[in-house]
Amino acid sequence: xxxxxxxxxxxxMENKPIVTCxxxxxxxxxxxxxxxxxxxxxxxxxxxxxGRAPKMIHLEANFVQFKEELLPKDxxxxxxxxxxxxIYWTDCCDTEMYKASVKDDMLRWQSTLRLHGSVDWLIVVVxxxxxxxxxxxxLPRTSIVDKIRNDFCNKQSDRCVxxxxxxxxxxxxxxxxxxxxxxxxxxxxxSFTKNLGRFEDDMRTLREKRTEPGWSFCDYFMVQEELAxxxxxxxxxxxxxVQYDELDALFTQYVLNFGAxxxxxxxxxxxxxxxxxxxxxxxxxxxxEKRELIQRGEASLLDLRSYLFSRQCTLxxxxxxxxxxxxxxxxxxxxxxxxxxxxxxxxxxxALDCWVFLSCLEVLHRIEGxxxxxxxxxxxxxxxxxxxxxxxxxxxxxYLCGLVAEKGPTSEDLNRTVDLLAGLGEERPETxxxxxxxxxxxxxxxxxxxxxxxxxxxxxxxxxxxYRAIGRMRSARLIGKSLAEFYMKKGDPERAEGFLDDxxxxxxxxxxxxxxxxxxxxxxxxQKLLQQTEDYLQTSALLAGDANLTVEERKHFCxxxxxxxxxxxAPSDQTVALSMAAFAQLRQxxxxxxxxxxxxxxxxxLELRVRCLMPVAVKVEQLAxxxxxxxxxxxxxxxxxxxxxxxxxxxxxxxxGVVLFPQGSPLAGAGMGASLLPALELYxxxxxxxxxxxxxxxxxxxxxxxxxxxxxxxxASLDTSSVTLSLLxxxxxxxxxxxxxxxxxxxxxxxxxxxxxxxxVYSQEPQLTIEPLSDNLLAGIPQKVKFTIATGHYSVKKGxxxxxxxxxxxxxxxxxxxxxxxxxSTGERVGESALSIQSSEKVTSISLPPxxxxxxxxxxxxxxxxxxxxxxxxxxxxxxxxxVRHRPKSHADRGMINIDQKVSIDCPWxxxxxxxxxxxxxxxxxxxxxxxxxxxxxxxxCLQNVSDTIFHxxxxxxxxxxxxxxxxxxxxxxxxxxxxxxxxxQSVFCLWEMRWVExxxxxxxxxxxxxxxxxxxxxxHTAFKPYRYEFQLDRxxxxxxxxxxxxxxSGDQHCRxxxxxxxxxxxxxxxxxxxxxxxxxESTEIEGLRTTKLMYEVVDNSSNWAVxxxxxxxxxMPVAASATHRVQMEVMPLFAGHLPFPNIKVFKYLPHSAxxxxxxxxDSCLENDTMSLLDKGLDDQGDTASIRSRGSVHSVGSGEQxxxxxxxxxxxFSPGQVFYLSQxxxxxxxxxxxxxxxxxxxx
Length: 1243
Known about the structure:
Elements: E1 18-23, H1 25-38, E2 44-46, E3 55-57, E4 62-65, E5 83-90, H2 95-115, E6 121-127, H3 129-134, H4 141-152, E7 160-164, H5 171-208, H6 217-233, H7 237-259, H8 288-296, H9 301-318, H10 322-342, H11 351-370, H12 373-378, H13 380-400, H14 411-422, H15 438-445, H16 449-469, H17 473-489, H18 493-510, H19 513-530, H20 533-544, H21 551-566, E8 576-579, E9 584-592, E10 597-599, E11 605-612, E12 622-624, H22 638-642, E13 652-653, E14 658-660, E15 682-688, E16 695-702, H23 705-708, E17 731-733, E18 740-743, E19 746-749, E20 760-762, E21 767-772, E22 777-778, E23 783-790, E24 801-805, E25 812-813, E26 819-823, E27 829-834, E28 836-839, E29 843-847, E30 856-863, E31 898-906, E32 913-921, E33 924-933, E34 936-945, E35 951-960, E36 968-973, E37 980-982, E38 987-996, E39 1003-1014, H24 1020-1023, E40 1025-1034, E41 1040-1047, E42 1055-1056, E43 1061-1069, H25 1075-1080, E44 1083-1086, E45 1089-1099, E46 1105-1108, E47 1112-1118, E48 1124-1133, E49 1137-1140, E50 1143-1150, H26 1178-1181, H27 1185-1190, H28 1199-1203, E51 1209-1212, E52 1218-1220, ...
Parallel strand pairs: 1-4, 1-5, 5-6, 6-7, 8-19, 10-20, 22-32, 41-52, 42-53
Antiparallel strand pairs: 2-3, 9-11, 9-14, 11-17, 12-18, 13-14, 15-16, 18-19, 21-23, 23-30, 24-29, 24-31, 25-30, 26-27, 26-30, 28-29, 31-32, 33-34, 34-38, 35-37, 35-39, 36-38, 39-40, 41-43, 43-48, 44-45, 45-47, 45-50, 46-48, 49-53, 50-51
């Protein structure tokens, strides 16, 4: 469009509601200007029926002189010519004149209105002060108005209004004008609403008769369009647009019903052949020519659609919605083409293309006329569809008229062009002066080949630029493909190649298989014309394997390749390399050995199966392969780490070394027809804040995006039934994946196989490992360990030996029948050889048999780890950061003491020593205890088998290693000379009684020894091994005996629940302490009597008794044999039954070295309760919390003296020093009443 072209004028509806004026015309003429200006200034609220929302409208009126011809006749309800209000104007202020002429004129006026049924009228009396002054005999003003109201407005007094001095600018005049205009607007709106509602009812009635014979859509169209005109007259453009949309939908539904076989009779007029195709006309508000055709019933389908859309376009522009015009226009053009087919309308070939082309340009010109350039560029997404549609139709016309052929149009084409241009008719007056009107463009484009190419390229490039600007690249490439076809028709393949290549890349990336095939055929033709041999052969190879083509087409392209390959090359010619993806498909690989892991110097066989994708047999002259070398340091992982990187990583790796490549997968390179894509590998991705690790966002990421988004030559599936399987290669050689196949001068190359299929060649350092044959090595008995030597690249020669350092705690046992087994790298047994083992004081030498590289040497040795005699405490191992190393515990070594033995080994292949650590577990767990029965003492040793092995245990012996046996003796009770069987987790208890002559020693150093052997041992006598357990007993003599008695209340024979009973505790000294024991006990001497303090406490943990009063205290015991102290207290049984005695505890009470300010009263047997809890352990504080709260502390001076009071401490007696005579005793407690339900506590 040219910038200097004038914008078309936008016309509006000039119709306004008609108001007739009768009476004094000169008076009305003088007031007309003011009335026409002031009437639309104030808006009025328009309330409509049927619940429609009210609207604010500005009323205008067309004031005309009253004539009887203007009044509607019977049956004529046309709204545009209907007078909505009738006004009678008079300024009469003389009674005689009123009676003589004015009254009679008013009577005739009202009679005429009543005759035509018009009830909307108004009488306006204009009063003027100047006229009053000229008349001296006039009556007051009210007399004339009252008379008029009495004569004409008996029941409607508001139909007569007074307008005072309308031509003056006074407040009275303004008030009078305001009142008059309000009344006029109200009456006009009431009349308008009433008549409009009646018109709508009549229109609905007419629409409901559409199923009756003789109903005409054109007649109904004119009625509803008049309603649209009325809305447009009121500037309600949205409501007016709704009327046209309803007409559009009604007509479309009738056309669809006609296509389904349900046709209406009136549609016959629209089935007439199309004789004119001059396009849309949008530069007029109303196309009266087409409206008259519709009114007469002579309009064609294109006429009706053109007129209807032109009215919709005008209203949309009034509503400032120009971009909706383009959307509706595109739908209209496509629908019209379909409706013509449904109605089977006869159309000249090419006529529709002309109509669509002209209509597209007309809409674009109309939009450009009401929008500036910035708006057009910002909203090109709305107009690009019309540009594209116009381009397609112009291209179709060019092909039809012979303007694209290389030789130009023929005479037949010229005649067809003349007929098409004749159907356009003469150019419309609105576009005659426009140099770029659609009419002129079409005439010029069809006039010559050069003009057509100019206009077609201009439209195509404009549409492409718009598509690129809005990011619709697919649509842009589609237009480019159409341009490529145009250039190919014009014989210009160079300019077509770029567009075809761009489209092909897009189709391949998105997987449109049929489009890929079609575009490749065009590309092949273009490359052949340009003599691009290599590219043409590659495209031919892809097409030869494309299942979307017929077999004949595929054979043609395959023959093109074979023909070129069979031609003798010129000296300057080079071999053409093509992609193998289009020629052959890799189906299977098989490695031998299956693991695809070999050492240096070994042979690896690879069998390939390749499927030919060509439709004819192809002879392969040469096969070549290349390798990609990747150096990887395996470290100590060795073959174990290599096994995880085998070919099983391929698409379908199997354990037998076979890798299958499914048909159609990207791995197989089937770019000509692959439809299978690799599965999505989605992983969670979280973005956390670096400060507080809070989650900012989360999502998923695709790890194999490079596979899903990589370019494929095509994505259609390959039908195996249409392919001749002529090449199936099975080769065995030591080179890995396929790389090149040669057919004459053509080489098919596959750059790589993805994912990578690889084999591994490793070079391994010699390794020595020592592992036990059982789950756990047991100390104390011979255990077998397995030595495994992986020779790696080292060759074990004759004379090579392992040097093992000897330790006293773990000797190496060897026999003359020890042998070694030699295994190959695949685990096959190669041979066996005897070992020569020589031992000295410090070193054990093992001579190794000769072993080739990459073999395994295995042999077994017996070792014995001695059990330490004392309880073994393993060394605390610490990490490099100083933390203690914690060993992971398994189910086998729970409760077992482990012993780590380290062995230093010198290997012949290394100058450094290898340090091997073996962990042994002690199979037994021993513990001891001392038991007392009065003054008699017993020592009990418990030996528990904590291993899973069953043992025989014999000869248990307990001895004192330091004290002379003359002073005391140990007698084994319940001893047996036969071995005992000890199962797993089973314990054996041994008991010895201690007897002494004078006094027991303070300390006993005891040693327990026994012999044990596994039950599974073949020779039980030689298999027995010693076990020794040493321990120490301190202060084993009995110092005190403790006896308790519970006495029922006086008068009762038994204790009863809830009744206080007496508890008497007797503490008796059994012997005088020795010198050492005396030093440990703090004693005091008062009046020649030495005493020691004891702390007692009565606690009932089972909650059977309630101790009343004081439950603990400090007593002073004389340091003399048989000295007895009794303590009495009260207890209350809480349950009935045989209740056990409460627990009684005795501690040594050791006062602080400092002497208190006030000595406590030691003569009393019961002391202050608070002293008993001082310096107690945390375990006992919970039991005596209530006692602590009940006790009271003696006041000692001031508060400061009390805080510095020295604190005593408690010390428990050693096991066996206190003998509890009442332990295990029970007392019978009866219930208070004889209830039916008795609660009994049984322990």
